[in-house]
Q: What sequence folds into this?
């Protein structure tokens, strides 16, 4: 195993003061980082895509776990520290300078890959929506292990009949399994963010037959756009929705948050079948 200097020393030597604009909150506790790198399971010789490695704490843990890491970082200041890390693990770390939102991850990786990231929260949610909303299923990524604000993590894994349940839960759960893998106290970060964090782990599941991702997206946008209203009202602008509820025996007086993910999938299936018939 490579003998590496403490992360605090790397940060001081390269003058990597955390930038608020880039959402930088670094993790420096190597034991915690090893526990995070273990969440996806055995990474021995697996390809891993890390977004936002910063000074490379999580990157080290992934390399220690045996992964071959491709890391996308947009802060140039971090590149020399990452280059040093690459020297300690020859041929196992590829660093790409750039904005992860502007890069085609499948083309970059060229093989199935696990995603592991501690990202700024706004970038994390945008990428999460993209990874889970893709037309191609199963996706090229084999799992997503991502840090979020705890409140967002709870929305991703939420069950029906809870205030956290909404579009994110349906998006994450309709063709995959999402679990809250670890809570991370704000004091674990340097500097500490204002809120608590949690790591979500998602694995892709089977694609339900006859459902278009677009139909489901439109349905949940309408249903949760007016979550306090009855479905009869909130789905008024969705062609075929009233008939779909009727066919499935779902009371139009119910509200969106009482419907299971399977209910949404069933309605979207009816809508998808209806729109191809129209
Ligand atoms: N992974 C490191 C850790 O756990 O200590 C750093 C985490 S810090 C919360 C987020 C990192 O993502 C920063 O290094 C930041 O520069 C980088 N970043 C922010 N936006 C990005 C983007 N759009 N593409 C790539 N990297 C980004």
A:
């Amino acid at each position: 195993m490579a003998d590496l200097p403490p992360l605090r020393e790397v940060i001081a030597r390269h003058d990597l003061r955390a930038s608020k604009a880039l959402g930088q909150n670094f993790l420096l506790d190597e034991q915690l980082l090893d526990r995070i790198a273990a969440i996806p399971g055995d990474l021995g010789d697996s390809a891993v895509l890390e977004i936002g490695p910063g000074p490379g704490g999580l990157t080290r843990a992934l390399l220690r776990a045996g992964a071959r890491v491709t890391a996308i970082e947009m802060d140039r200041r971090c590149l020399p520290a990452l280059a040093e890390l690459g020297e300690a693990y020859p041929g196992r770390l590829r660093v790409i300078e750039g904005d992860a939102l502007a890069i085609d991850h499948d083309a970059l990786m060229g093989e199935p890959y696990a995603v592991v990231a501690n990202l700024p929260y706004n970038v994390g949610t945008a990428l999460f929506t993209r990874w889970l909303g893709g037309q191609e299923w199963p996706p090229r990524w084999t799992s997503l292990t991502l840090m979020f604000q705890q409140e967002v993590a709870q929305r991703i894994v939420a069950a029906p009949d809870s205030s956290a349940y909404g579009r994110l839960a349906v998006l994450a759960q309709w063709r995959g399994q999402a679990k809250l893998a670890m809570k991370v106290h704000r004091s674990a970060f340097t500097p500490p963010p204002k809120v608590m964090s949690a790591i979500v782990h998602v694995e892709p599941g089977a694609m339900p037959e006859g459902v278009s991702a677009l139909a489901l997206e439109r349905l949940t946008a309408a249903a949760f756009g007016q979550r306090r209203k009855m479905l009869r009202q909130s789905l008024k602008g969705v062609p075929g929705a009233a008939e779909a509820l009727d066919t499935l025996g779902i009371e139009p007086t119910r509200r969106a948050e009482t419907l299971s993910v399977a209910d949404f999938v069933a309605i979207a299936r009816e809508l998808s079948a209806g729109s191809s018939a129209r």
The chain has two domains: 7-204, 213-277. The CA atoms of residues 101 and 127 lie 7 Å apart.
